[in-house]
TrEMBL record:
This is protein-glutamate O-methyltransferase. InterPro entries: Bact_Chemotaxis_MeTrfase, CheR_C, CheR_MeTrfase, CheR_N_sf, SAM-dependent_MTases_sf. The keyword Oxidoreductase does not apply. GO terms for molecular function: protein-glutamate O-methyltransferase activity. It catalyses: L-glutamyl-[protein] + S-adenosyl-L-methionine = [protein]-L-glutamate 5-O-methyl ester + S-adenosyl-L-homocysteine. GO terms for biological process: methylation. PROSITE patterns: CHER. SUPFAM superfamilies: Chemotaxis receptor methyltransferase CheR, N-terminal domain, S-adenosyl-L-methionine-dependent methyltransferases. The lineage of its organism: Bacteria, Pseudomonadati, Myxococcota, Myxococcia, Myxococcales. Coiled coil: none annotated. Residues 1-273 form the CheR-type methyltransferase domain. It comes from the Bacteria. Keywords: Methyltransferase, S-adenosyl-L-methionine, Transferase. It comes from Corallococcus terminator. Its EC number is 2.1.1.80.
């Protein structure tokens, strides 16, 4: 495919625009990648210069929607059922099930849920313990396209690559090679679009017993990640837990949360004041 020329100067301002909107960071080594992705959208929109396209995105009344669509095309939705299941299982066994047995109604926010495999895995684990009806699950992502797929509950076989026995036939069915999650499970999750950059639009402070924010902070620079984590910390109840991906650590930029290891998984607890 043809890429339009992207000078270092225009790369810098385009990358800044994208980072401000979605947090995604592009370094100089990503110039060719970004040029390819942005060029196809610029050409489709009738531009033959990426500087002109930048001005359109930034200043035209239709630019904001075009920037959202561009950002959506850049997002990586890689995920699958039972990805990094250990931390989810520990969350269920050690926090959510005991809370339900103590008469509470815990709330969990899955803050970058992509096409939904992560919150649906959690829903399956909760159902297996008989407590799904007692736990509220909110799943959000920036991508409207990913959320549409999550709400439809339709998947492909790659999403099943780590599926344990007993899931198929109970919570999902594969018909003609197309996995489909049972609609009653999909309906247990509240799906909403939310940009992690918009911390002012986060749910009210102190609303959640646990927040999952796995495999998304890696796309952000430390300052951005810190701002997002501060926002997520606010929505946790005192004693609530933040769970990040296994390859992510909040220690590199410091956090007010208290890091604890539980059965090999790291949890970040909001200290009770
Ligand atoms: C690699 S997926 C991770 C999905 C899932 N949490 C997991 O661990 O399998 C990253 C997700 O983060 C979302 N994302 C990226 N930037 C975001 C932002 N600023 N706000 C909300 N979601 C964002 C992407 O749309 C994508 O669906």
């Amino acid at each position: 495919m043809t890429s339009l020329p992207l000078s270092p100067q225009v790369f810098t301002i385009l990358a800044m625009l994208i980072e401000q909107r979605a947090g995604l960071h592009y370094g100089p080594e990503d110039r060719d990648l970004l040029s390819e992705k942005v060029s196809s959208r610029a050409l489709d929109a009738g531009f033959d210069s990426l500087l002109d396209y930048y001005y359109f995105l930034r200043y035209d009344p239709k630019g904001s929607a075009a920037l959202d669509a561009l950002v959506d095309s850049l997002l990586v939705h890689e995920t699958y059922f039972f990805r990094e299941p250990q931390s989810l299982q520990v969350l269920v066994d050690e926090l959510l099930v005991p809370a339900v047995h103590a008469g509470q109604h815990p709330r969990v926010w899955c803050a970058a849920s992509a096409t939904g495999e992560e919150p649906l895995t959690l829903a399956m684990m909760l159902d297996a313990k008989g407590v799904l009806g007692d736990v509220s699950l909110l799943a959000t992502d920036l991508s409207v396209r990913a959320l549409e797929r999550a709400r439809a509950g339709e998947y492909n076989l790659r999403c099943l690559r780590a599926l344990p026995k007993g899931v198929e036939g109970r919570w999902l069915d594969v018909v003609d090679g197309r996995p489909r999650v049972r609609p009653e499970l999909v309906a247990k999750v509240e799906w909403k679009q939310l940009n992690l950059m918009d911390t002012a639009n986060f749910p009210p402070p102190g609303s959640f017993d646990a927040v999952l924010c796995r495999n998304v902070l890696i796309y952000f620079q430390d300052d951005t990640a810190r701002r997002v984590v501060d926002g997520l910390t606010r929505v946790l109840k005192p004693g609530g837990q933040l769970v990040v991906g296994t390859s992510e650590s909040l220690m590199r930029f410091g956090t007010a949360l208290h890091c604890e290891e539980r059965r090999g998984s790291f949890f970040y607890r909001k200290v009770e004041s």
